[in-house]
Amino acid sequence: RRHKLYREELNLTSPAAPLPLRPEASWLQFQLGISRDGLYPRSSPAVTRLLRDMQQFPTISADYSQDEKALLGACDCSQVVKPSGVHLKLVLRFQDFGKAMFKPMRQRREEETPEDFFYFVDFQRHNAEIAAFHLDRILDFRRVPPTVGRLINVTKEILEVTKNEVLQSVFFVSPASNVCFFAKCPYMCKTEYAVCGNPHLLEGSLSAFLPSLNLAPRLSIPNPWIRSYSFDGKEEWEVNPLYCNTVREIYPYSSSNRLLNIVDMAIFDFLTGNMDRHHYEMFTKFGEDGFLLHLDNARGFGRHSHDEISILAPLTQCCIIKRTTLLRLQLLAEPEYRLSDVMRESLLQDPLAPVLTEPHLLALDRRLQLILDAVGKCIDTFGEATVVTNDSTQPQSPEPHRAKLDT
């Protein structure tokens, strides 16, 4: 009631004048530029403008994301994302009808994820989302939606523009006189887990939305190398070194480039340290050979001091890699194009720079060398012709790894 009266006093409930949709809007041009090669072309002025607009445009509304709404029973959002509730994110809309996913700062850059944390209860880091976009672009995957950092005034740009009374109700002023808010969901949603401004300003990442599912349907598919989301369980791939043989016999991994795309995703996740890739999404329009979307990267860049080799299981167990991916990795290992240097320069373009600390940047070089070492071992065992595959060719299983199926 207090928020409602406050909004009425400021005349925030009066309907705004309708705005025309501009065909040249950066978010629309970005969505129109999606092709079977990636979310955007290598040199995309639309993406450059979109990053600038998300950083500068005023917000006109704020609401819970689809998975929080699913938790509240407000919609059936199973085709979008699975509800989790252990993190906080909001959908912010802008004056040009564009919208972005806002993830607030939960962990400082210099803090590492504690060693005793399981990956499925790790923090969601706004800077990891930003860094993942830049890394994905440097690797020439172009499968992470454009993401930019921004300082948000949580009072003016969220509380005062939201029409969701539930969201309004979770705002409060802390003992330090900072404006805070928390998620509204069945668990992990208490004031202890709130995010707070200083006193109003809060860092966060803004990720551009993809086209609606009505216009561009997507499939959400379990990752064959999904991890066990329990304290003591293990999946088959974790105990069976020949697990890839089974995967190769299953459609579509048996007859498309899907397995090569899974390896790309594993390489990307290993570089970021993200262990939470339980599903992947892809556009149905591009068929079985379409690229995999690298979404939800906020659990990356948690521990620069640890390299989780198990993330590379698709590469080390299947011993295949795209030639274009390998060439890009080899280039980024050269002293004049060192991955850490390229990332450092790229991240300086973000308004929240420095996005990553120096130890995280240097960890990228170390992990890149581990990837190249793993590819080298595969080539020594099976030969380059078997391991390194042209992107348009479905690789054959190395003879020693072929599955022996019962008949």
Automatic annotation (TrEMBL):
Mn(2+) binds at D296. Residues 171-387 form the FAM20 C-terminal domain. InterPro entries: FAM20 (IPR024869), FAM20_C (IPR009581). The active site is at D276. It is found in: Golgi apparatus. GO terms for cellular component: Golgi apparatus. One of its GO terms (molecular function) is metal ion binding. Its cofactor is Mn(2+). ATP binds at K103, S207, A208, F209, L210, E281, D296. The keyword Endoplasmic reticulum does not apply. Keywords: ATP-binding, Disulfide bond, Glycoprotein, Golgi apparatus, Kinase, Manganese, Metal-binding, Nucleotide-binding, Transferase. The keyword Isomerase does not apply. Belongs to the FAM20 family. This is FA20A Pseudokinase. It comes from Grantiella picta.
